[in-house]
Amino acid sequence: MRIYLVVMDETEEAKQALRFASLRAMKTGGSVHILALVPQQTFNAFGGVQATIEQEARERAEVMANNAAGNIFGEMGKMPVIAVRPGSPAEVIGNYLEEHGSIAALVLGTAREGKNPLVSHFAAHAANLPCPLYLVPGNLSKEELDELA
Questions:
Q1: How far is CA 131 from CA 9, 40, 72, 89, 92, in A?
Q2: What residues pair up with 34 in beta bridges, in sequence order?
Q3: Domain of 86?
Q4: Closest C-alpha among 7, 19, 32 to residue 148
Q5: The CATH number of the domain where 60 resides is what?
Q6: 52-62 average pLDDT score
Q7: Per-residue pLDDT tens digits for 81-133
Q8: What totals of helices (H) and strands (E) does the chain contain, helices first?
């Protein structure tokens, strides 16, 4: 079974990548894994405050991933696998790919304007990935995206 890994955040390009991956999964009889990243905290507050900040960030990531999963379930009728992980994005994604050797493709969306750091990182290291990297253009309309998938 083909498994498409999508890194989910609150950006439009992530939503594009998720739509593409879910359509590909439907067409190939595959499934989708959603990896929601918990942003690293750039400061250290007092212990209790720091723990609260980290817990809130984790909860936001979980809600976002579950909302995205619900949308996919509504369209595909199949619930994606959801993982929420803290840490450096490139490192977390690399570890996830290692842990799940059956991933068929890492699917990332490109920004309409500006650069996406994850796209830049993985495009530069694509030769070292254990699976193909699919880049979904952020400027595609829903109809164009549906046609391409």
A1: 21, 26, 23, 17, 16
A2: 6, 82
A3: 3-148
A4: 19
A5: 3.40.50.620
A6: 72
A7: 889 888 889 999 999 999 999 999 999 999 888 788 899 999 999 999 999 99
A8: 5, 5
